[in-house]
User: Which sequence fits this backbone?
């Protein structure tokens, strides 16, 4: 519904490989990507490479998680990605993606 309502195009990538995610982030500016919505999953807590890639491309990004990472195990409560994004949404299941996309659309419109 948001895609039609706001006339946005989505480029969707899913990978379990950190290097592929980093490469995709690095390619984003060359592909006329305006913003990044990312669920780094377990890489949230371990990936300096994804964090650095997000900082390097200088695109607005929103981090999303299906679960509330702050209600989980202690080691999952620290996001290495959070300082590299404009905001974070977690704990709303699949709706976290919808809320994140809406946040990016609003950000780009402002």
Assistant:
């Amino acid at each position: 519904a948001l895609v039609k309502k706001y006339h946005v195009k989505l480029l969707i990538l899913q990978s379990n490989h950190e290097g592929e995610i980093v490469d995709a982030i690095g390619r984003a500016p060359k592909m006329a990507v305006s913003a990044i919505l990312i669920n780094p999953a377990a890489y949230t807590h371990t990936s300096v490479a994804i964090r650095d890639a997000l900082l390097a491309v200088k695109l607005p990004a929103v981090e999303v998680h299906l679960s509330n990472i702050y209600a989980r195990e202690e080691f999952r409560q620290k996001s290495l990605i959070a300082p590299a994004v404009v905001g974070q949404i977690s704990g709303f299941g699949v709706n976290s993606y919808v809320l994140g996309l809406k946040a990016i659309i609003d950000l780009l419109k402002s």
